[in-house]
Each structure stands twice: as C-alpha cells, then as structure tokens.
Amino acid sequence: MKNSKITELLNIKYPIFQGAMAWISDADLAAAVSEAGGLGIISGYGLVEVIREQIRRAKEKTNKPFGVNIMLMSDNIDEIANLVCEEKVEVVTTGAGSPGKYIDMWKEHNIKVIPVIPSVAIAKKMEKLGADAVIVEGMESGGHIGKLTTMSLLPQVVDNVNIPVIAAGGIADGRGIAASFMLGACGVQIGTRFLVSKECNVHQNYKDKVISSKDTDSEVTGMSTGHPIRVLKNNLTREYQKLEKSGASIEELETIGKGALKKAVVDGDVVNGSVMAGQIAGLVNKEQTCEEIINELVDGFYECINSIKKL
Length: 311
Ligand code: TUI
Fold this sequence. Notes:
Elements: H1 5-10, E1 16-18, H2 27-35, E2 40-43, H3 48-61, E3 66-71, H4 77-86, E4 91-95, H5 100-108, E5 112-117, H6 120-129, E6 134-137, E7 143-144, H7 150-158, E8 165-168, H8 174-182, E9 187-190, H9 192-195, H10 204-212, E10 218-221, E11 229-232, H11 235-245, H12 250-257, H13 260-265, H14 290-309
Parallel strand pairs: 1-9, 2-3, 3-4, 4-5, 5-6, 6-8, 8-9
Antiparallel strand pairs: 7-11, 10-11
C-alpha cells in the first residue's frame, strides 16, 4: 500500500484521498488529512477569493501535498481553473464533467490532473487527454453521481487504461480499501468518513445525521433532471420526490435544490437542507481525528490482507 503507483506519483505516504465535498472540504480538513499521510483535497466550489484563501491557509498548515477539486458545472469554472495555476496547486481532481479544455494548461503548470470518471469510455478519453490518473467513482457515493457501482465499474476501467486508478464510492474502512486493491485500484478516495472527522467544520447536525444513519437511509434525487444526487432522506427529499412525481419542470426542481446544500452544511438544517452522503454512511458511526481515521484504515487494510494470506 505504501508503495503504490499513486504514492510515488504524488509523494504521499498512504494512497488515501479525502474526497472533496462542496461547502465542506476546507483548509482545516485537507491539511489534517495530508498531515496524517493521505491526500487532503480542498473543494474548489464557490467564490474564487474564498478558495484562494483556503489554498493559502492549507499551505500554512502543512508542507505536505494537497489537492483542489474543481466542479466542472460551476458558473465561475474558467476563473477557478486559472486560480489553481496562479496558486501553484500540486494536484487537481475534477468532477461532474469533462476537464478536457483545461488539462493542457494545468499540465504546463506542473499540476497532476486526476479526473473523477463514471464510465470506461470517459476514463479512456481522460487518459488520451493526458490525465495522470483517474478516480473511478461508483454510484454509492454521496453528491453528484454516475450510474454504475464501484464493484462493476472499477475492474472494467482497470482493464482499459494504463494510468493509475483510484477507487471511490462505498469505501469507509480497511476492508473497502483491500477490496478496491483486489479489483486493481492502487488507491482510494473516501468522503463520508472524513466528513465526520473532528477537523471537519461541517455543522454538528450534519455529522450527527451521518453518524445515526443506517444502510437504507440515502436515496437519489434528480434522476429526471439528468443530475442525480445522493442525499440522506429528509423532508427536502420527500418534497422533491412529490414534485418529481407530479411532473414538475426541471426549473421548478432546481429551484428547491438551490442553496439546499449550504443550508445543511452551514446552518445545520438537516430537515430542509440537502445532506449529501454516501451509501456507506451506515458504517460510519463515530467522530475521530483524521489521524485516527487514517491509522484505522491502514491497520484494517493490513488485517484484511493478512487474513487472505492464511487462506
Ligand atoms: O462531482 C462529484 N460529486 C459532487 S459535485 C457536488 S457540488 C454540488 N452539487 C449539487 C449542488 C451543489 C453543489 C456534489 N457532489 N462527483 C464526481 C463525479 N463526476 N461523479 C460523476 C462525475 C462525472 C459525470 C460525468 C464525471 C464526468 C462526466 O462526464 C464527462 C464527459 O465527458 O461528459
């Protein structure tokens, strides 16, 4: 694990990425994960100056590598794409679209580019465009998702590209990491478990909702708009589904979704806000420091591998 293709490429101790979560992943969380030996990732979603400040703060808090995630559906995407060059960010991950337009510019600035991909075809396209690695994200993940599961998609991508593959979606412990490695991944990305870490500044109500949730508590909204999003069930998801069933227009549906994530993350309104989390939330049941989480993940991974060796 310590000598995987991705630890060498990024100069990190463990091949464990902290999944970027919009409004949630700030300098405190990213620096704590990087300090613990993983790759912390700041969310690059929002105002440019706020993200610039977070990047600078993370640099003050850690000398280790960290990344910035770029959400390709953002309105200010061109500005954010330039920002990571100006601030000499080492690693960029992308999500929710194709980063094709920006890859050459980022490579010219020596940035490692690692897109999140939802299919084999897009993984191959990213490799051709010069991506350094890809993150295969299954629909078990929280937030904006593709259609396939990690278990099915991961080995198919591994068989079709020559760049390192990182697994995401449904992973929250050492067993999940070992399973991902068995399917050919050389690293993992974990969001939901880091969301409840001590260093994560999300509202306590959000953490408590994740900690108390069980296996069946997440669902996908927005299938009809073409932007499916996995969230924990609450009053907002019930209202959303009622509207969806009544044949509401995409505009109406998007209106009730607007600002809903911030409402949950910042105001702690987990009843009428959007509580994005992965299916694995049922397994996440305590708040720990990022260091404790990473150490448990690594120990759990080795326990798993050693038990297989005895077979
Ligand atoms: O990006 C994510 N998950 C996210 S972004 C986000 S931000 C937000 N969302 C809603 C409201 C407010 C804020 C929340 N969750 N995951 C990575 C991901 N990327 N999942 C799927 C994809 C993806 C989908 C299509 C990547 C590429 C793609 O197509 C590429 C192409 O070539 O068209």
